[in-house]
Amino acid sequence: METLEPILAAHPFLKGLEPDHLKLITGCASNVVFQPGQFIFREGEEANQFYIVREGKVVIETYSPVKGPIPIHTRQKGEVLGWSWLVPPYRWHFDARALELTRAIALDGKCLRQKCEDDHDFGYEIMKRFAFVIAERLEATRLQLLDVYGDRS
Amino acid sequence: MATVLERQIKMGDDNQNPMHPKLFKVMKVRKETHDTFSLNLEASDGSGGFHFQPGQFNMLYLFGVGEAPISISGDPGVKKTLTHTIRAVGAVTKGMMKLKKGDSLGVRGPYGTTWPTKEAEGKDVVIIAGGIGLAPLRPVIYHLLSNREKFGKTVLLYGARTPDDLLYVQELEQWRSRFDFEVLVTVDRALGKWQGNIEVVTRLIPKATYDPANSIAMVCGPSIMMRFTVLELMKQGLTQNQIYISEERNMKCGIGHCGHCQIEHIFVCKDGPVFRYDAMVELFKKRDI
């Protein structure tokens, strides 16, 4: 049976990972599909996964009783969705909803957290890769906050 | 009622003076967004044919109010009509927003350097626009699409504040439907029915398909957006001499005489507005310019 290993190995987020580490992560992976409009996770729920998006588009959003859903940013093919699984108290801070039919690989965060504890080399690799994702998001958020297209830019 | 200058221009007075505008008639006004509009102009003397290169600008003179430098946003292949897309931000441009079909406008130009369409031949072309920065890049897009066989992969990455701030929405859809032109659009924020990307335009750069080693990037938008775009392009492997930017500065004469747009030794109006990034790299970093 074909495993997810070659797909994960080719993904930019995991590119260059040691074969042993790739095996560890593949053991925590499964294929998932979300229909348009389906919530992938909801604010406040336990964050026990992250996702590697293979096809489709996902919006990260919050909700205001006055304004309704407020989209914050979108994630799509080739990108990683979710890092709350890595940071206590392991709860989602926003909602994630599929905008289109979305295919992804779900990585079991609980399983990965344990493997990171057991194998610190593996844990360090995962942390380095997530630090990059988080830094990238922080920079993008700062740019969004700058409102560069506004009158005073 | 015609102003003195308008009457002088009609009489053909002082036509050799580079500061002397030529009279054009507004043929069409098109609202692009809540504060941005396009004017289609034709020469009032019926001479027809306005020749320009992508990236150049004109000084547009609103009689009785003043002059403003505005990039040409139309098709360089269509000589009869001169198109400008204008954001209403000051007295002159706000006044221009009130122009109607048949009104007159003074035009001096075209001025300035051009986007490197010749250098880009045989290469992939990555066009990155932010907000109204798409206007000065649209002539390049027309040129690329009219001469498609001369270029490698062509990519447009366009970001705006909200979906309502996107320019040329119908054209974006047409371009997006082509198989030989990759168009990615994003907005910084959106509410309602928007199903497109929500993220800053710099995040589109790693998603586009092009060969960084054999690409030319042309970037236009707000200064902060261009700085971060250049950083991301270089992260992808482009070098400083593969990146071109268009600088926007307050200009007065448009021909390098008055120094109004001067940044150290550079006159943006005549040395620019399009610069290769390696020529601007030090000035780009300075805080006080």
Structure description:
- Chain A is 33% helix and 30% strand.
- By secondary structure, chain A is α+β, with helices and mostly antiparallel strands.
- In chain A, the strands form two sheets. Chain A has a four-stranded antiparallel beta sheet.
- In chain A, helix 3 crosses helix 4 (120-146).
- The longest helix of chain A has 27 residues, at 120-146.
- The N and C termini of chain A lie far apart (55 Å).
- The mean pLDDT of chain A is 92.
- Chain B is an alpha/beta fold and 289 residues long.
- Chain B has two domains: 4-110, Elongation Factor Tu (Ef-tu), domain 3 (Beta Barrel), CATH 2.40.30; 124-246, Nucleotide-binding domain of ferredoxin-NADP reductase (FNR) module (Rossmann fold, 3-Layer(aba) Sandwich), CATH 3.40.50.
- Chain B has seven helices and 15 strands.
- Chain B has helices spanning 4-10, 91-96, 134-146, 169-176, 223-235, 268-271, 277-285; strands at residues 22-31, 36-43, 57-62, 66-71, 82-87, 104-111, 124-130, 154-160, 182-187, 197-198, 215-220, 243-246, 262-263, 266-267, 274-276.
- In chain B, a hairpin with a 2-residue loop joins strand 13 and strand 14.
- Chain B is globular.
- Chain B starts with a helix and ends with a helix.
